[in-house]
Design a protein that fits this description.
It is a single chain. This protein is of the alpha/beta class and about 300 residues long. The chain has a single domain, classed as TIM Barrel (Alpha-Beta Barrel). Helix content is about 50%, strand content about 10%. The chain has 13 helices and eight strands. It has an eight-stranded parallel barrel with strand order 1-2-3-4-5-6-7-8, surrounded by six helices. The protein is globular, with a radius of gyration of 18 Å.
Length: about 300
């Protein structure tokens, strides 16, 4: 347990669900994608983040993808993470226990937010899952995307009571938002998201790492390698070049998903950048920016 909790740091990358041009899941491409992601320098690989398009998959597809995910990453150095996305607490607990029994290293939990459940009900949902398993659980907290706001004290109390609880927090601007939690508990295990914006400054206040989409994971891994080595200026240099693109691309998870899938297609890692609809569609401006991005970061990618 403690070893895995200590590995909540650095770069975690969210796997895409590859589709063929007819919209069907391409499981062979998925295995190839996982093989690539496991060699990028990422600490962990995640399935069923928002940008995995989990909300556009059938139950049968998720069952097959889960098995390919676990089989492909078995024995690899990266941490495997499956997200529990069920809105019902009863169902989510069973899914969490099933994933643990299948051998995943960590879980992630998206708290239910449809129809504005009460703070007490959301807290109960997360606690029921924490009490049902003994592997690390990353609690997602993305109030701008979900419109669900929880008191800082609620999440800090959860961290105090459950030593296997960690948090993926997404907000913009991020630094002041996350500082509130770290003021209450300086060693609270937090990863940021939101395309890694403000990543260097967040590292300096105690945020341990980033979880973002897998189009150019090598860059995030490079930033944390430099930060861990004390080379803040080099980390800032890499991030500074990325920031001008990220600010435009991170309109919402759908925009980042579509653009980064297109990046992987142009890099020859995915055959298709198809996203199930409703979807964001890469614009001509985005396409030019992708070309510029790939040229600028050719030495890393």
């Amino acid at each position: 347990m403690s070893d895995l909790m200590q590995r909540i740091k650095g770069s975690y990358t969210i796997a895409f669900t590859p589709f063929q041009e007819d919209g069907s899941v391409d499981y062979e491409e998925f295995a190839k994608e996982l093989n690539y992601l496991s060699k990028t320098g990422a600490e962990g690989v995640v399935l069923y983040g928002m940008t995995s398009e989990y909300h556009k998959l059938t139950d049968a597809e998720k069952t097959e993808l889960t098995q390919v995910f676990l089989d492909t990453l078995k024995g690899r150095k990266v941490v495997s993470v499956l997200s529990v996305t069920d809105w019902s607490t009863d169902v989510a607990v069973k899914t969490a226990q099933k994933y643990q029994a299948l051998g995943v290293d960590m879980l992630m939990v998206m708290p239910p937010f449809y129809f504005s459940p009460s703070v007490e009900e959301v807290r109960r949902h997360m606690i029921c899952i924490l009490e049902a398993v003994d592997i690390p659980v990353l609690i997602q907290y993305a109030p701008l995307a979900t419109k669900l706001y929880l008191p800082e004290e609620e999440l800090v109390a959860m961290s105090d009571k459950y030593p296997h609880a960690a948090f993926k927090m997404e907000y913009r601007p991020a630094q002041d938002f996350m500082q509130k939690f770290l003021d209450l508990k300086p060693d609270m295990p937090i990863l940021t998201g939101w395309a890694g914006l403000e990543i260097v400054e967040l590292y300096k206040i105690g945020v341990r790492g980033v979880m973002t989409v897998g189009g150019f994971t090598e860059l995030y891994a490079a930033i944390f390698k430099e930060l861990d080595a004390g080379n803040e200026e080099k980390a800032k240099e890499i991030y500074g070049k990325m920031e001008k693109y990220l600010g435009d691309w991170m309109i919402n998870p759908e925009s980042l998903l579509a653009i980064e899938k297109e990046i992987l297609k142009r890099r020859g890692i995915l055959k298709s950048s198809y996203c199930r609809r409703p979807a964001y569609h890469v614009t001509e401006k985005n396409s030019r920016e992708i070309d510029e991005f790939l040229a600028e970061f050719a030495e890393y990618l």
